[in-house]
Design brief:
Layout: H1 2-18, E1 35-41, H2 48-59, E2 64-67, H3 69-74, H4 76-84, E3 88-91, H5 104-122, E4 128-129, H6 138-144, E5 148-149, E6 154-155, H7 158-161, H8 164-171, E7 177-182, H9 186-201, E8 205-206, H10 209-223
Parallel strand pairs: 1-2, 1-7, 1-8, 2-3, 4-5, 6-7
Helix pairs in contact: 1-10, 2-9, 5-6, 8-9
This protein binds zinc ion.
The site of zinc ion has 5 residues, from loops.
Amino acid sequence: MALHRRRLMLSLSALAMCSATRAAWAQADDAPLPHVALTFDDGPHPEQTPRLLDILDREQVPATFYVIGSCAERSPDVVRQAFLAGHDIGNHSWSHPILTRLSSEAVEVEISRTDDILMAINGERPNTIRAPYGATNDEVRAVAWPRSMMLWDVDTNDWRSRNTESVAREAVSRRGGVVLMHDIYPTTIAAVPSIIREYKARGFRFVTMSSYVEWQATDAIDLA
Ligand code: ZN
């Protein structure tokens, strides 16, 4: 537990140094179970992502954005708006390839180029990475190490259904955890208010993926 407290203090002081004006959400450390992490991949989208940010702001809910580096380069102001609002910005590769089909060198370029653009926009490197399609293997994980490659617990299949009712239903179909969505579809954005309402009604706490990793690390340390 002492180790965890040190880690948390370090991460909080780093946050304060890097971006004094950035909003801060409750840490997972404070979170009673159950908790939920809303994650949005494949943006930023110049129109849909700002709409989502308005909803999250209104509801005072943190989320995690796994952005594609080449999209971030085209819409840096949207990424910065999300970052300054206190949301987590994760690395989702530069061009969304199937990383397991690339050489280690090519995987390294996909990840580091995205790190670089996000560092240029936010002044901070992403804490976590999510592989496109969740496709990962030992080689990909070795390139990402020591950062975590994040998957999900709940797949809304929003890209397939493009149906607001279906997304809203799927997102709350399990007991929280990490929910996968995409902030590039209007049908997904339209489902978010109802998803938040439902999780709030069930007493869930909303966390970012960075704090989720921290929380899991605490759990592992406590068990050891
Ligand atoms: Zn993706």
